């Protein structure tokens, strides 16, 4: 009987490992929850342009460009793995208040963008958005802030390795997908099973721009230790802001602190690079 139970346990373990291996994409990306746009910047009183951004491999990304008069620069926004650009309206209001134009877009497979999401695809999407902002909109690289939340932080950090933005902001971001998987499935050899990297902490080691890291000690999805590790890996000049609240509510709890701290950081370093 013990032998039979051991065999059954081994089969169940192997089946779970196989499921994790083959279903990784659906565990990382939630595009179906982010297909429908629930509102537009216009619903919040913001003027905006609806834009289509071509990628180098033939996809078309949908996004919004929100201008402000006499803008001090521009924010290129990378959202997390669920929802779409219409779920980030509070951020758009914040950047508008700070006096920065914003380009926010949906990755392939999200919102009204074509295609299906993948790690390599999100990197191509990042490059396409950067080209649009620097070429079509004519924003100098040194006046661009890359802002990434959660998974979007990994994409933003990857882009910051090859481009020269004025600053990089990471909000509630993980160190890597394998690190996150090890937290969720400590009983599985997830580092061997993982087909995704998004190694934010490694990207940061070669970033040369100022870095702002924000993370909540109460984050219920990405451990606070990830945020601290990213801050330690980031080059100087850098700043850490400890948030309050859960993974998706830290911005709400800390709105005024966010606006003040981030505004000062961006203004200081973008003006210094001018």
From TrEMBL:
<dbReference type="Pfam" id="PF00561">
    <property type="entry name" value="Abhydrolase_1"/>
</dbReference>
<keyword id="KW-0378">Hydrolase</keyword>
<protein>
    <submittedName>
        <fullName>Alpha/beta hydrolase</fullName>
    </submittedName>
</protein>
<dbReference type="InterPro" id="IPR029058">
    <property type="entry name" value="AB_hydrolase_fold"/>
</dbReference>
<feature type="domain" description="AB hydrolase-1">
    <location>
        <begin position="74"/>
        <end position="172"/>
    </location>
</feature>
<dbReference type="InterPro" id="IPR000073">
    <property type="entry name" value="AB_hydrolase_1"/>
</dbReference>
<dbReference type="GO" id="GO:0016787">
    <property type="term" value="F:hydrolase activity"/>
</dbReference>
């Amino acid at each position: 009987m013990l032998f039979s139970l051991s065999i059954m346990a081994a089969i169940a373990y192997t089946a779970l490992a196989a499921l994790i291996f083959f279903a990784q994409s659906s565990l990382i990306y939630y595009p179906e929850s982010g297909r429908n746009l629930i509102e537009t910047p216009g619903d919040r009183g913001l003027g905006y342009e609806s834009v289509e951004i071509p990628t180098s491999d033939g996809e078309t990304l949908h996004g919004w460009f929100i201008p402000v008069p006499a803008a001090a620069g521009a924010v290129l926004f990378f959202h997390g793995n669920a929802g779409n650009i219409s779920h980030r309206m509070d951020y758009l209001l914040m950047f508008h208040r700070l006096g920065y134009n914003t380009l926010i877009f949906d990755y392939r497979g999200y919102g009204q963008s074509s295609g299906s999401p993948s790690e390599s695809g999100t990197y191509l999407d990042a490059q396409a958005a950067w080209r649009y902002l620097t070429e079509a909109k004519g924003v100098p690289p040194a006046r661009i802030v890359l802002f990434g939340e959660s998974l979007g932080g990994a994409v933003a950090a990857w882009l910051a390795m090859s481009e020269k933005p004025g600053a990089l902001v990471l909000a509630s971001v993980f160190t890597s997908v394998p690190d996150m998987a090890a937290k969720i499935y400590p009983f599985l050899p997830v580092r061997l099973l993982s087909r995704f990297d998004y190694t934010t902490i490694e990207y940061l080691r070669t970033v040369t721009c100022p870095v702002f890291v924000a993370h909540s000690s109460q984050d219920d999805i990405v451990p606070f230790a990830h945020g601290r590790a990213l801050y330690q890996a980031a080059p100087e000049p850098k700043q850490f802001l400890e948030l309050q609240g859960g993974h998706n509510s830290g911005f709400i709890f800390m709105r005024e602190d966010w606006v003040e701290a981030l505004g000062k950081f961006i203004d200081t370093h973008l003006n210094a690079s001018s």
